[in-house]
Amino acid sequence: MSTNSYVTEGSCTCGHVRFQVVEDPLIVHGCHCRGCQKNSGSAFAINALYEADRVRLIEGTVEETSVPTPSGTGQDITRCKKCKVAIWSNYNMGGLRKHIRFVRVGTLDDPDQFPPDVHIYTGSKQPWVTLPENDPRVERFYEFRTTWSPASLNRLSQIEEYAGIKIS
């Protein structure tokens, strides 16, 4: 566990599930892929990526549902067992499925603190969504090494070492 003392909490809509995250996110995505549009029922999803061991369920029960993704690797969505709101997902993302959680920013108690660092899959963005002019964006997905901050890349290296994998 990191020595960073930053902690934030979140919940589902009905309040049955409470969770906390320790640390700043590795990165925050505004994802405009068709899968996120369908899964969220909206124009895009905003996900804050955290190491799995930094996301802690502190109250309630959850269930996991597997759904397809545009990449074909699928995702496991963790939902409140009562209200079915998506709390976080695990994507394969180069073998990191069990190691990184994509926390739905809207479930955090203070979501205003987590604007997207990058917009992804903008090639399928709804045409009426206007992104801020200076926000980084990519048509599909990005290269980790050129998009993530040095501190987040260091944390990614620790995950790779622990998992015995290497993300290109």
Automatic annotation (TrEMBL):
Keywords (A to Z) from UniProt: Lyase, Metal-binding, Zinc
A GO term for molecular function: carbon-sulfur lyase activity
Gene3D superfamilies: glutathione-dependent formaldehyde- activating enzyme (gfa)
The keyword Zinc appears for this protein: yes
Segments forming domain CENP-V/GFA: 8-129
Alphabetical list of PROSITE patterns matching this protein: CENP_V_GFA
Family the entry assigns: Belongs to the Gfa family.
Protein's UniProt name: Glutathione-dependent formaldehyde-activating enzyme
Provenance organism: Boseongicola aestuarii
Taxonomic lineage of the native organism: Bacteria, Pseudomonadati, Pseudomonadota, Alphaproteobacteria, Rhodobacterales
